[in-house]
Amino acid sequence: MGEQDLLKRIRELRKGYVGRTVEKRLEEFRELGRKPANEIFKELCFCLLTANYSAQGGMRIQKSIGDGFLMVPEEGLESELRKLGHRFPKARAGYIVEARKHIDELPKLMKMSGKDAREWLVGNVKGLGCKEASHFLRNIGFTDVAIVDFHILDILERNGIIKKPKTLTGKRYTEIENVLMKLGGKLGMNLGELDLCLWYMETGKVLK
User: Fold this and answer.
1) Is the pTM value of this prediction over 0.90?
2) What is the pLDDT averaged over residues 105-110?
3) Do the Cβ atoms of 29 and 208 come closer than 8 Å?
């Protein structure tokens, strides 16, 4: 396989059920970005939970805890995360409680570019790296940042587009994001749409 094969497959996916599902999911993301700060914060908690874990596990925990992300003390949150099977209950509870001080600042992100918002998140919210911050931003409606996770790295390497790095530095992250931006440009797709299509190709699912 090569880049042209990948582009052809994405174009085919875009025409049918997957394309319609992706557009529906993107509209859900845009709608979430218009909600109050507390709702946006709960999505931030989901993205804090998915780091070195799984999206499906994070979704299950997010649904179970709900408004508890806003008010449950750290010890209680740790206990709940442990009971729900998270791999890192103590660390994630600490990150979530620490992040609460930024709840009222989250709506201001909607007035920034994706890259500026990501820089703010990485610099201010403990537990968020480029990937997690980009995931959060995509999930609240941003389409100009890429989620460079192992699924994306695998598919790009398999198609001869990149050589998968052993460690993903900030510089390398940006380089791969630019590769994805060029791919999206050839397809007439933004980074949010492209990510969901690539994720479907690797997992058979259109998640968040």
Assistant:
1) yes
2) 95
3) yes
